[in-house]
Amino acid sequence: MWAFISNAGRESTEISRPRPCAKPRAELSSLSDSARQALDIGYCRHLYTYIVIFSTMPSSTKIKSLISGLGLLQMLVGILFLFSASVPGATSDPDPRNDNVKAPDRLHAGLFLNYDSDVQPQFQGAPTNVSLGMVINYIDIDEMNGKLTTHCWLNIRWRDEQRVWQPSEYDNIKEITLKASEVWTPQITLFNGDEGGLLADTQVILSHDGQFRRMPPALYTAYCNLNMLNWPHDRQTCNLKIGSWGLKNIMPDNTTTKGKSLDYDDQVQSPEWQIVDSRAKFVSQDYYGYMEYTLTAERRSSMYTAVIYTPASCIVILALSAFWLPPHMGGEKIMINGLLIIVIAAFLMYFAQLLPVLSNKTPLVVIFYSTTLLFLSFSTIIEVMVLYLATAKHKRSVPEVLKKLLHGKLGTWLLLSQFSTTGEPQEEQTKEMGEHLYENPDEDDAANPLGINPSGMPSYKAIQFDWALLATAVDRIFFVAFSLAFFILAIICAV
User: Fold this and answer.
1) Can you tell me the distance from the alpha carbon of 361 to that of 355, in angstroms, rounded to the nearest whole number?
2) Concatenated DSSP letters of 32-94
3) pTM above 0.70, yes or no
4) Which of 29, 82, 149, 419 is the 20 to 30 A CA-CA neighbour of 486?
């Protein structure tokens, strides 16, 4: 019978007989061996049914209809084959295990026979929506370059109405795992970052209801406009714009454990930064869309208390205590101020290594240290003036107006009364005191100007006493002024 069919097929120039149990190689090249075996078996089964029906026909009917109906029958057989191959579970074999073809292979072959991974799937007659969620594992902020680095997991979901099946027909298989290169996947990228970020090539999970899910780890480095004004107690707010070029239908994915599109509760705690607030919203543009994730991170500043604020307090205390040294110790005062200036300069260099030099707003801590450096410079000039008043050889006495103030209420407020009380002159003094105060070491009866009775001393020593008292008053007045200045500066820089 096959010979008769072959001879009849050669006489017809318009019809070509297909080879039984064969399939075009172009369609089967992407399938596994077991899947191709399943398709060949199904094709042979339909062809065998056709041969049986044909053999039961009368001989005259066979001869008349063979040549005219051979092309139509070939077309019908091909349609039946494609229908059985493209619809999962459409095979008529009640027990497919008899053919030694596993259910996963049959399912994969039926789902992706005519599948194009370059075409976006359809759902309910429209391009499928893509749901995007993020789970943050770790963050870090680079202050020098103004960048936020985020280590995270993405949760990407989409649906395809053509990739559905009944689990009961395939050994209760409810989901399968596929390579990302096998199916269409949205090209997720970072819009406001460095080279769009790094996205790992992970597998895709397909559920029986046609839902695809992919959870790749990602590393994103986004540009961030940092506000360093309150450093090191600062809070930085940065945005991550994650989406796909040419894909407008992106929506937040709320299938995380916390029911949020952005989850960071299980993150690895950074030694310096902690997320305190977050927001997520979808932004649609003309030909693309993206999810905008807003992160607010607070710096952990416990270490900076010991590194920055404790030295700052010590600097202020030493700068103010220098005003309480005796006026003739001007050299020691200038040396203390010089050492403090060197320490502050070292701190400013340290800040320059940590903070961006071209920042829009200078940190308040840097302002505090630089202003303190300016105060110490003025204090050094004042101490030079005080040293001159206390040790120079004055030929003129202090003006009477100043003398009345020094011996009056102003002297009492400045604690100068202990230096102007009457009493016996002190007979003992050091050589250094005599040299600094009077520049006359040969006089053996010179007394301490801060403990003598001016009325009982020669006029020269009384003049020196008044000038030394004035120098002490200048020290006390500037102590009050600098204390008030440091207090105001501390309040301003603590805001």
Assistant:
1) 11
2) -HHHHHHHHHHHHHHHHHHHHHHHTS-HHHHHHHHHHHHHHHHHHHHHHHHHHHHSTT----S
3) no
4) 419
pLDDT higher than threshold 80 for residue 14: no
Confidence category of residue 102, pLDDT binned at 50, 70, 90: confident
Residue corresponding to tokens 């040969």: 442
| CA atoms within 13 A of residue 224's CA, in its CB half-sphere | 29
Q: Are 410 and 477 in contact (CB under 8 A)?
A: no
DSSP 243: E
Radius of gyration over alpha carbons of the chain, in Å? 46
110-128: burial string, b at 16+ Cβ within 10 Å, e else: bbbbeeeeeebbebeeeeb
Name the phi and psi angles at 65, rounded to 5.
-95, -10
How many angstroms separate the CA atoms of 58 and 54, rounded? 9
Question: For 256-271, what is each residue's pLDDT tens digit?
Answer: 555 567 888 777 888 8
pLDDT at 282: 86
DSSP string, 408-457: SHHHHHTT-GGGS---PPP----HHHHHHHHS-TT-TT---TTSS-GGGS
* Closest C-alpha among 107, 91, 112, 4 to residue 44: 91
Instruction: Please name which of 219, 154, 155 lies closest in space to residue 193, comparing C-alpha atoms.
Output: 219
The whole-number average pLDDT for the span 299-324 is: 88
**Which residues are within 8 A (CB) of 73 and not within 5 positions of it... i.e. 6 or more apart?**
50
Q: CA 456 → CA 222, 398, 426, 448, 453, distances in Å?
A: 81, 18, 12, 13, 6
- Tally Cβ neighbours within 10 Å of residue 236: 20
Is the peptide bond between 425 and the residue preceding it cis, with omega within 30 degrees of 0?
no
Closest CA to 122 of 187, 189, 184, 181: 184
Is the CB of residue 319 less than 8 Å from the CB of residue 337? yes
Tokens of 15: 């019809």
How much is the pLDDT for 143? 87
Average pLDDT value for residue range 206-210: 92
Using CA of residue 16, residue 21, residue 25, residue 30, what is the dihedral sign?
Answer: positive
